[in-house]
Amino acid sequence: MDSFLASYDPLDPTGNITIKWDVVSWTADGYVASVTMSNFQMYRSIVSPGWTLGWQWAKKEVIWSMVGAQTTEQGDCSKFKGNVPHCCLRKPVVVDLLPGVPYNQQFSNCCKAGVVSAWGQDPSSSVSAFQVSVGVAGTSNKTVKLPMNFTLLGPGLGYTCGPAKVVPSTVYLTADHRRKTQALMTWNVTCTYSQFLAAKNPKCCVSFSSFYNQSITPCSKCACGCQNKNNCVVSDSKQAHKKGINTPRKDNAPLLQCTHHMCPIRVHWHVKLNYKDYWRVKIAVTNFNYRMNYTQWTLVAQHPNLNAVTQVFSFDYKPLVPYEAINDTGMFYGMKFYNDLLMEAGPQGNVQSEVLLRKNKDTFTFKHGWAFPRKVYFNGDECLLPPPDAYPFLPNSAKVNSITISTMVVSALLFLFIIS
Questions:
Q1: HEC-encoded secondary structure of 304-318
Q2: How confident is the model at residue 412 (pLDDT cuts 50, 70, 90)?
């Protein structure tokens, strides 16, 4: 499958990560560039342990120094006498610096451990940047050779980057807004995400329930693959309470609670109440991974009645309108300092909210699973929904409640007594 087609997301058709290189000055043997990574994806962030950026030099370039980031390896710099470069590798690999580094190592929008928010959730935190001084390179627009074969991990697989392309130089505005300056040269690299490249199995699943049916539609069996069935933790076992079980591993490998679906994340959609002009849904997100906290999580749902959301009680909400004529998609995310952190598996490993929606009497119905979402995404990955024939069905006839009938009889007698 073509990587571009695999990367297309119908709910965020223009979403991408753009990496911009601005050459800000020439040096004796190269240039100094400001590198800015902008996440233009509406609901897919880069979570801990952050991004990793790599590329291949076109010639024999070296990195003399970096501010706001560092390469993971220096490589063989033995041929240099005196000043030793920061990195001499043909294929350098760069990571962000951690928060709290000394001020002289910081650069604007740096030092967040590689965590980058989604554009739709927090535009001010959707940028990461660093400065790099490149040597043994060209010293003019005509002699500089663009780096090649860019790779981006965010933090795992999934991103495919296109070739670097020269674009019009970036224009800067001075602090007093009275003077414009511009980069000496600018090139862009565009990276897009594909869930098929990220993992062969889904990373989340969805379950359903409703007030009009006592049955619960669970996540499908082995929804996220059962290859780790022998390495999971039973929720009530001693291992689940063992000290250090929540310590993340360097390879970010999960440690899941034993479930029939074996997913790290389950989203439950419950149709809770039905009013004359409104109806209410309860949404709960549960984390079954003992080694993962989800910071700044996002939940995207597609449902035809999301065009009439009246109130969201415990989440923040933002409608997503990828196509102007259709407003059926929305993004839920945690309130800052309240529930924007989804804790690891355990008593605190869930977040929940209720949503009040206004009915459109021309289209509203509980029949044929209409009350349940068409698509659900968690942190940018599509979740596996149950098969349609397993949805909670609307009974053909409701059971008669004897208390209700007796109440109606008493009310009728009282009414007759009053008018007589």
A1: HHHHHEEEECCEEEE
A2: very low
Pairwise CA distance, residues 283 & 260, whole Å: 21
User: Which part of the chain has CATH 2.60.40.290?
Assistant: 16-197, 200-390
Nearest to 171 by CA among 159, 158, 184, 160: 184
Tell me the CA distances in angstroms from 94 to 48, 70, 130, one per residue in order: 15, 6, 10
Residue pair 257/240 in contact by the 8 Å Cβ criterion? yes
Strand 204-210 to 265-274 pairing? parallel
Residue corresponding to tokens 């043997």: 29
In angstroms, the CA 359 to CA 304 distance is: 11
Average pLDDT over every residue of 99-114: 95
Per the model's pLDDT, the better-predicted residue between 135 and 394 turns out to be 135
Question: pLDDT-derived band of residue 122, with 50, 70 and 90 as boundaries?
Answer: very high
CATH of domain 200-390: 2.60.40.290
Q: Are 254 and 278 in contact, with CB atoms under 8 Å apart? A: no
Per CATH, the number for 16-197 is: 2.60.40.290
Q: Say if residue 254 is preceded by a cis peptide, omega within 30 of 0.
A: no
245: pLDDT confidence band, cut at 50, 70 and 90?
confident
Q: What is the pLDDT of residues 359-396, one digit of tens each?
A: 998 889 999 899 999 999 999 999 999 999 999 988 86
**Host H or E run for residue 6:** helix 3-7
First to last CA, the chain: 80
